Amino acid sequence: MKKITIAIDGFSSTGKSTLAKQLATKLGYVYVDTGAMYRAVTYYMMQNGWVTDNALDKEAIVNALPNVKLHFQFNAELGFAEMYLNGVCVEQEIRTLEVSRFVSKIAEISEVRAKLVEQQQEMGKEKAIVMDGRDIGTVVFPDAELKLFMTASAETRAKRRFDELVEKGQHVTFAEVLQNVQERDYIDTNREDSPLVKASSAIEIDNSSMSKTEQFELVLQMVQDVV
Ligand code: C5P
């Protein structure tokens, strides 16, 4: 069976990572969550006070980029790779609503994107990879053999994200999660550099009323048609 690149793009909380993890496990591929990389950069910049509610110090952020070292490390117990920032696992820290509030602003900065895209392309050069994000099929791997574009209504997505955060013990309201989902969608689709758009060859999947199993089986069939 030939090894391929699977690019999964879409709006926030469309279940991209769940699907990507299922596929990677089934196919024995590497899974890369590129949102985690943007989140880790954001977390670093927040810790240094360069992104706040009122300001974003773009110069300081760009200058600090060489100091940000990211890598993934597979956690066999969890069954997926965790995000490390300068040698420290930040998997929990990067999943907060606070990081979600700032991440799209950091992801608009071209220098940030260039650094992360380069690392992502390096990780995928041997293929056998499932990568999810916003620009995978358009910018990172325009030649990917299978491209998916996931959608679902904003309310469905906010409900999923809300349930996830509550399960992790975070104190959030549904209204603020919905607002964050809508704000990120807006910034991600309207930014100048690599906006979220469906690649022309991507297959669109609206999973608002699809179970995870149904979705997985549908996509697995698509993979089998390509390999
Ligand atoms: O996937 P997740 O929701 O964790 O991504 C967080 C944010 O990172 C997105 O809202 C987007 O602003 C940014 N992102 C991006 N390009 C990617 C992946 C994520 O701009 N490839």
TrEMBL record:
Protein localization? Cytoplasm
The protein's superkingdom reads Bacteria
As recorded in UniProt, its EC number(s) are: 2.7.4.25
One GO CC term on file: cytosol
Regarding protein family, the annotation reads: Belongs to the cytidylate kinase family. Type 1 subfamily.
Q: Which reaction does it catalyse?
A: dCMP + ATP = dCDP + ADP; CMP + ATP = CDP + ADP
A molecular function annotated in GO for this UniProt entry is: dCMP kinase activity
Where, in this chain's numbering, is ATP bound? Answer: 10-18
Gene name per UniProt: cmk
Q: Name one GO biological process term.
A: pyrimidine nucleotide metabolic process
Name of the molecule in the record:
Cytidylate kinase
Q: What class of enzyme is it?
A: transferase
Q: Where does the Cytidylate kinase domain lie?
A: 6-224
- InterPro entries xref list: Cytidylate_kin, Cytidylate_kinase_dom, P-loop_NTPase
Any Pfam family from its record, for instance, is Cytidylate_kin
